[in-house]
User: Which sequence fits this backbone?
């Protein structure tokens, strides 16, 4: 895993991604993380019952008169920890590691929320092998699946922008700035 990747948690400071993955391994092995069971059409799927979110920041520019955009940082939050990186290659490497550590598969999944998945999916699809997509219309992605991680759109779930959604949560410490 790339050395530049670190994980941090408010009040607990920064740790290396190796230490972060070791903490996840310890939690999985100690059975402190619950798995929710879902059965549909005879197939059983287990979902990790933990908070998880992903976000990218994008910059747009003109190149030869054509408007372009690229991701310049990504953040992946799980439990109370956030890890981040600068490139899609780092994210793919991180996904492989977290998938292996948590034994993610078609039968054991981690749900990861992305606010406005439709927008961020347009960047993700070029760098990740997306195995399944559910969309209500072209370019209106509600959920997609990759390497045991099921990305879901929290905007579609709440029907609120991020600022309004965080304002609606009582006792929230950090809202949308």
Assistant:
């Amino acid at each position: 895993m790339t050395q530049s990747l670190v994980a941090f948690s408010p009040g607990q400071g920064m740790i290396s991604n190796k230490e972060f993955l070791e903490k996840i391994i310890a939690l999985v092995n100690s059975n402190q993380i619950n798995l929710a069971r879902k059965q549909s059409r005879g197939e059983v799927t287990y979902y990790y019952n933990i908070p998880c979110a992903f976000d990218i920041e994008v910059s747009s520019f003109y190149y030869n008169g054509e408007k372009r955009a690229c991701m310049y940082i990504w953040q992946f939050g799980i439990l109370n920890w956030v890890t981040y990186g600068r490139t899609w290659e780092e994210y793919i490497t991180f996904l492989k590691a977290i998938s292996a550590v948590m034994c993610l598969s078609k039968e054991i999944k981690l749900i990861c929320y992305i606010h406005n998945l439709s927008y961020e999916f347009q960047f993700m699809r070029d760098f990740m092998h997306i195995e399944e997509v559910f969309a209500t219309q072209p370019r209106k992605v509600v959920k997609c699946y990759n390497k045991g991680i099921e990305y879901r759109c929290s905007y579609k779930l709440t029907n609120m922008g991020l600022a309004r959604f965080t304002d609606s949560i009582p006792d929230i410490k950090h809202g949308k700035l």
Observations:
- The CA atoms of residues 25 and 101 lie 6 Å apart.
- The chain has a mean pLDDT of 83.
- The first strand starts at residue 6 and ends at 9.
- The two ends are 31 Å apart (CA to CA).
